[in-house]
Design goal:
Layout: H1 9-31, H2 48-54, H3 57-90, H4 96-108, H5 111-122, H6 133-143, H7 145-157, H8 161-170, H9 175-186, H10 188-203, H11 207-212, H12 220-228, H13 232-268
Helix pairs in contact: 1-13, 2-13, 3-6, 3-7, 3-10, 3-12, 4-7, 7-10, 8-9, 10-13, 12-13
Amino acid sequence: MNRKLPFWRIPVIASFALFMMVPVAATGLFSISTRWDRTLWPESFTFMWWLKVMSHSAFFDTLLNSLWIAFLTVALSLILVVPTAFLTHTRLPQAKPFLEFLSIVPFCLPGVVLAISLIRLYSKVPLPLINTPNILIAAYVTITLPFMYRPVMNTLESLDILSLTEASETLGANSFQTFAFVVIPNIIRGVTSGSLLVFSAVFAEFVLANLLVGTRLKTFPIYLVEFTRLDARQASALSMLSFAIVWIITLSVLWIAARGRNASRERSHP
């Protein structure tokens, strides 16, 4: 039997969607307007600002910098967080409160405080970190810990992982095979969600990138902020391009993950 939504939910959801979409729509309109200061609506439209910002070589350089930093951060987060969450959930449940606390700490640390702390700490360590992308990636892995840990742990808690691991080990699989071929496919939804959250957060991050590396490795957000001081219409075009890039990558990852799940189901149910 279909249950109707309470009458108040539809206007609440519609108001939230409107609140989220109006700024994006306004930015998009401004990025293709020739002039928008004398009337309620733009006087005419053009894609000149989009073509102009994309004609600069710095556009592709900064875009590639942000992309490889974001992907590398996602990879390191997966390597560090996913096995840790699995071992904590299955072998060390007493450590779960400590990890829960660690996953909250990044929300309490302003970017400026974290940047200064990292510089003070690693300036005394004989490692090639200061003024290099390495320290930026390390900082990103730290601040995005909640975005990876929480989806993965939620997925683990929603499954009977202990029964799956015991069944796998009973059939002769070792610990690595159990984790790689049994656990990972079952928590792929949480891994995908965490990866997308980490990627989105890193790709759009400005404060740490500006403080830790600055112009030594200019990222896309730094390039965008520079344009806000020069031409707001070109800055709006860059914002919409950033939004579109993140959406394209997100949809691509979700499509690949969905195909992988469908292929797994087809193999398990011939």
